[in-house]
Amino acid sequence: MDAPLFEIDDLHVTVTDEATGAPIEILKGVDLTVRPGEIHALMGPNGSGKSTLANALLGSPEYQVTSGRIRFKGDDVTEWDPDVRAKAGMFLAFQYPQEVPGVPVRSFLQQALAARRGIEDLSALETRLAIMEWMKRLDMDPSFADRYLNEGFSGGEKKRNEILQMAVLEPELAILDETDSGLDIDALRVVARGVHEVRAHRPEIGVILITHYQRILDYLEPDVVHVLVAGRVVERGGPELARQVEEEGYDAWQP
Length: 255
Ligand SMILES: Nc1ncnc2c1ncn2[C@@H]1O[C@H](COP(=O)(O)OP(=O)(O)OP(=O)(O)O)[C@@H](O)[C@H]1O
Ligand SMILES: [Mg+2]
Fold this sequence. Notes:
By secondary structure, this protein is an alpha/beta fold. It has a domain at 6-100 and 171-253: Rossmann fold, CATH 3.40.50. It has 8 helices and 10 strands. The strands form 2 sheets. The chain has a 6-stranded mixed sheet, with helices on both faces. The chain has a 4-stranded antiparallel sheet with strand order 2-1-4-5, covered by helices on one side. The longest helix is centred in the C-terminal third of the chain and has 17 residues, at 185-201. The protein is globular, with a radius of gyration of 18 Å. Bound molecules: adenosine-5'-triphosphate and magnesium ion. Magnesium ion (MG) binds next to helix 1.
C-alpha cells in the first residue's frame, strides 16, 4: 500500500464563542487518511463540523487545534502557517469564497502561482499561458480572467473559478467545500470535470470533497465516504454509504 499522502490523527478543534470568549469544541477527535490518487467524500448534517475541518486543515487562525496532528507528505504541518501549507501543495476551495474587489482573476492567479512555485522560476508569459490553457480545458470564456475576483459571480461561476485556481496551482491535496445545494447540474459537472482534468494531469492528487448530496459522486466516484456527525466521524464506507445517506439521512447516527 502507498504511504499516506495526508493523515489526520485524533484532531480536536475549538472556536471562540464571540459572546462569552469561551472556547467551544467543534471537532472531537477526527481521524482520516488519504493515500495518493484517492478521492474522499465527507458528508454530514449542517453544523456537524465539515467546514471547520476544512478551515483547520488549511490553518485558518480562527480555528484552534487543541490536540491531534495533521501530516502532509510525512511532515507534521499542524503548526504551519496557511501560506506555507499552500506552497507545499495543499489547496482549499472555500464554501463561501470571498469577493476581492478590484483584483482581476488573472492577477490573483498570477500571484498565487508565483507563491506556489517560487517567483524566480516563473515568467509572466508562462503564467499567462498556464492560465489560458486551463481556461480552455475548462471551457471558460477568456474574458473571465479580467473580471474582479468573485465580484458579482454567480454560484456556478464561483465554483468554476475555484476549479480554475485548483488546476493552475496543481496542488497535491485539494479540499473542496461544496455548496452543492446552490449548484445546478451543469455546475456540478464543471466541478467533477475539473477534478477529472486535474487528475489526468496529476494522477497522484488526493481530493477531499465535502458534499451534501450523492449526485456529484455519480461523476466523481469516491474511494472512501466519511460521515461526520457532531464533530466525530461516525461511519466510513464505499460509495454505497453515500447512497444510504441520501436515502435515509443521518437519523441512524444522531447522538
Ligand atoms: N468561527 C466560528 N465561530 C463560532 N462558531 C463557529 C465558527 N465556525 C464554526 N462554528 C460553529 O461550528 C459548528 C460547525 O460549523 P461548520 O461550518 O463546520 O459546519 P458544516 O458541517 O460545514 O455545516 P454546513 O453543512 O451547514 O456547511 C456550527 O455550530 C457553527 O456555528
Ligand atoms: Mg460547511
